[in-house]
Write a structure and sequence with these properties.
Length: 360
């Protein structure tokens, strides 16, 4: 029996990870989160503040049989994008990780594997053009302060000479099911489209100049995490991960509009983070008209309008390309892929089926 602790279980990656683990025989799953996830699927939910070192120690003391840690927790600043370079954010995320890893290292005698998440900010995508495609152990931007480096260095040092191993994943843009996340474009785009439809408008693309980029489906990322916890080929390795194709937002916009039941509009630059909060009452009308189970706009979307502005490249006038190589992961044995347009149809369809977004 494997006992899996998923930290950050209400977030985009953690939610997918504990749901995929919970569906596997022989796995006891502890979902760790301050917010209650929408569904638990048999996982045991523990409400815990990762800033509380004593509480983390007590949790591990009560569960010494933990074999796997999936660390998907992250603290974002109120200004999400600016916070990525904030010293306080770096310190907070470093301490949160130490607070749960250190007692596991001391007390979980059967610990086998630890997974942590980074992203393309490891290559400095938020401050410079990438040298395409960015490759693991070659293209890192260590000179740019980032909590990734604090967590990675502590993880490697803690594992030195131990029986347990680690894997680090660097996903591209992640898309999935979580609500209230600071990092989920699905809810933000879904609300934007529902409001446009309610107002009788086509769905304009509000971003800037296109960027050739990649996406990753959160379920595929979760299954890669499960694979890594069992595979010798993933032992003490860093992997980029993406869907397998590339996209630009203008290119996939018609497929997104079709999935959401709106007509594609024009390219009309706008900041959703600035314009959408004023339309919260219209979202409430949409919820009432369609009998939706989703909450108010702020609870449902969180800070994700900020992320959408960033990924849509609001205010950017020059096209660019931002790609990573996934060859290392595929050669190691994990090769699952999905067409990115299919991924958008999947997630918008799921939100519609669960009455979180209006049916098209």
């Amino acid at each position: 029996m494997a006992q899996v602790l998923v930290a950050g279980a209400s977030g985009l990656v953690g939610y997918a990870a504990f749901q995929n683990y919970a569906g596997m025989a022989g796995h006891d799953v502890i979902a760790l989160s301050r917010r209650r996830p929408a569904r638990t699927l048999g996982a045991r939910l523990e409400s815990l503040d990762l800033h509380d070192r004593s509480a983390c120690d007590d949790l591990v003391r009560a569960n010494p049989g933990i074999t796997h840690l999936v660390y998907a927790a992250v603290q974002e600043q109120p200004s999400v994008i600016a916070g990525w370079r904030d010293d306080a954010q770096i310190e907070a995320n470093d301490q949160m990780f130490r607070n749960i890893l250190d007692p596991l290292d001391r007390r979980a005698t059967g610990l086998r594997h630890v997974t942590i998440l980074q992203g393309t900010k490891a290559y400095g995508v938020h401050v410079r053009p990438l040298a395409n495609p960015a490759r693991e152990d070659r293209s890192e931007m260590r000179e740019q302060p980032n909590f990734y480096w604090r967590q990675e260095d502590h993880l490697k040092e803690s594992a030195r000479g131990k029986d347990w191993a680690w894997t680090i994943f660097r996903p591209t843009h992640i898309f999935g099911e979580a609500m209230g996340s600071a990092l989920n474009p699905i809810t933000a785009i879904g609300v934007y489209a529902a409001i446009a439809r309610e107002e009788g408008r086509k769905l304009d693309f509000p971003g800037g100049a296109p960027r050739v980029s990649q996406a990753i489906d959160s379920d595929i990322l979760a299954r890669a995490i499960i694979w890594a916890g069992q595979s010798d080929a993933a032992r003490n390795q860093i992997f980029n991960i993406a869907n397998g194709d590339v996209f630009t937002w203008p290119n996939v916009w018609p497929a997104i509009c079709a999935a959401l039941g709106v007509e594609p509009g024009d390219h009309v630059p706008a900041s959703l983070a600035e314009t959408m909060p004023a339309k919260a009452a219209i979202w409430d009308k949409v919820r009432a008209r369609h009998g939706l189970l989703s909450p108010d706009m702020e609870t449902f979307v969180g800070k994700s309008f900020q992320l959408v502005d960033y990924t849509f490249r609001h205010g950017m006038a020059e096209p660019t390309t931002s790609l990573v190589s996934t060859v290392k992961l595929h050669k190691a044995g994990f090769c699952e892929e999905i067409d990115t347009e299919e991924m958008f149809r999947k997630w918008f369809g799921l939100f519609q089926q669960r009455k979180l977004l209006p049916m098209p």
